[in-house]
Amino acid sequence: QHTCRQVGVNIHARLAVLVADTDPARARNLLDTACTIDPINEEIARLAMTAHSQTGNTTAVRTRLTALTQALHTIDEEPSEETHRLARRLLHPTSPRTDKRST
After folding, report:
1. How far apart, in Å, are the Cα atoms of 9 and each of 57, 81, 94?
2. What's the alpha-carbon Rg for the chain, to the nearest Å?
3. CB 17, CB 51: distance < 8 Å
4. 61, 43, 48, 58: which is closest to 6 by C-alpha?
């Protein structure tokens, strides 16, 4: 069962990479499906959060982080600091800094 789940996740993730440039919505959907197949896979969840952010859907970024957190809690784990950092960056992008030094 674990092997089948992992194969399903890998297929969806690879397809998402292949279509990301030409069909970001499809890539996002493929990654969401991969998250459904393996809800505790942080790497896939981070890819899905990034895909949602790239299509401007911050609500889906929050939803994906919440789903991951809940899934990890079922095995007494929590999202890594890397995942939390990514979520903060995607949800609260900083405005570009301007360099006021003269050149």
Report:
1. 22, 23, 32
2. 16
3. no
4. 43
Under CATH, which architecture does the 2-91 domain have? Alpha Horseshoe (1.25)
Write out pLDDT tens, residues 20-30.
999 999 999 99
**Cα dist from 39 to 4, 48, 66, 86, whole Å:** 14, 11, 11, 18
pTM of the model: 0.84
Using alpha carbons, list the distances in angstroms from residue 59 to 14, 18, 19, 66. 24, 25, 22, 11
Sorted by where each begins, the domain ranges of the chain are 2-91
What pLDDT digit, counting tens, does each position of 49-84 carry?
A: 999 998 899 999 999 999 999 999 999 999 999 999
